[in-house]
Design goal:
single chain; 252 residues; mainly alpha; Serine Threonine Protein Phosphatase 5, Tetratricopeptide repeat; 0% strand
């Protein structure tokens, strides 16, 4: 099972709401203005419009320098700007102000994972996953899984991936992890089912195509194997998976 995994920055999905929220900023209610500036900041972070994100998060800071949402937003902003010390400082401040702020904990866990601090990442993902009311709990469990893999805790990782897809069947990345695990364990029918679920919700990747090639080869489906091999060659000719495929052909 591939253990290296890069997590995209996790932010609230606010695209499409920015124009409407911009109109709310000018209203006199300070609490509403604060919340709107934070949401706009996160929305612009999601769009990688860092200048606009900074503008609104600075406005939020002027209204309340201790607001956990603003601190979390600044953590994300500094992370994208390549300022890890400032990012970590703000994530920690957000969690000190509100230890139950699961979104900030998830973002901090992702930050830690991306900096190869896997035990710390695991601990924060695990803590975040214990929030039964959090709408992105499946993503937290996926984080538990990939962190557990880095810590050579495969059994815990598989349990986390299975729990994640139970909560959110459309979480394609977890299905791919399970497909690769079942393939390694020679549970080929289960590997195929997990890969089918991945393909239902996501576009092919070099990794998914290589897993698919191996599964079809085992079942003797030469046409499907050849089709996926051609896709791997055409779409990902410089991937490590294509190199692995070529080596497997040479050794047969």
């Amino acid at each position: 099972m591939q253990k290296a995994m890069f997590f995209a920055v996790l932010v609230l999905a606010l695209s499409g709401c920015i124009t409407t929220m911009e109109k709310d900023v000018s209203k006199p209610n300070p609490e509403k203005a604060l919340a709107t500036h934070v949401k706009l900041g996160l929305g612009y972070i999601g769009e990688k419009n860092l200048d606009s994100a900074r503008f609104h998060l600075n406005k939020a800071y002027e209204l309340d320098s201790d607001d956990p949402g603003m601190l979390n937003g600044r953590g994300l902003l500094y992370q994208l700007e390549g300022e890890p010390e400032l990012a970590e400082k703000h994530f920690k401040q957000a969690l000190r102000k509100n230890p139950s702020f699961t979104q900030a904990r998830l973002n901090y866990a992702t930050f830690l994972f991306n900096h190869d601090r896997f035990q710390e990442a695991y601990d924060h993902y695990q803590k975040a996953s214990e929030d039964l009311n959090y709408e992105r709990r499946a993503v937290c469990l996926y984080g538990v899984g990939v962190s557990a893999l880095k810590l050579d805790r495969e059994e815990r990782a598989v349990a986390a991936f299975e729990h994640a897809v139970l909560l959110q069947p459309s979480l394609a990345a977890a299905h791919l992890e399970l497909a690769e695990y079942h393939l390694k364990e020679k549970r080929y029918a289960e590997a195929k089912r997990s890969l089918n679920q991945f393909e239902r919700y996501a576009k092919a990747s070099s990794r998914s195509l290589w897993v698919g090639i191996q599964i079809e080869r085992i079942f003797g489906n030469k046409d499907k194997e050849a089709s996926q091999a051609l896709s791997l060659k055409n779409l990902f000719p410089y991937s490590k998976e294509y190199l692995e495929y070529k080596k497997s052909k040479e050794s047969r």
